[in-house]
Amino acid sequence: MTGISVWTVSLVAVIAVVTIGLYGLLILRNLIKIVVALQVLAKGLILVMVTAGGLHGSLAVGSSLAVTVIVADTVVTVIALSLAIQVRRRCGTLDIRGISKLKG
Question: Where does 6-103 sit in CATH, by number?
Fold first, then answer.
């Protein structure tokens, strides 16, 4: 009896998480929700790095790269959320459609 390997489950999880993140980016219109969708997509890409490192026998390299991406991603998220707060204060909305009408 053959079981499902850990790498197969990991690859399926990677595909699912990245797909959910991309779907959120394409569908959502609220700035906060877009930042959350970007976070989901980034976590999927971190899973890609760890899975690729494990498949090639260098899990330590994939894991260290993942930690680096997590730190950089946290900084980007904080800046994006602070910008969303400023947009809400200035424009009164977080909806992209409402903000894009302000172009002039």
Answer: 1.10.287.3510
Contact 69, 42 (CB under 8 A): yes
* Largest pairwise CA distance in the chain: 66
User: Which residue bears the tokens 């790095």?
Assistant: 49
In this predicted model, which residue has the larger pLDDT, 39 or 55?
A: 39
The helix/strand/coil state of 30 is strand
103: left (phi over 0), alpha (psi -120 to 50) or beta: alpha
Q: Confirm if 25 and 34 have CB atoms less than 8 A apart.
A: yes
Domain ranges of the chain: 6-103
Q: Express each pLDDT in 16-38 by its tens digit.
A: 999 999 999 999 999 999 999 99
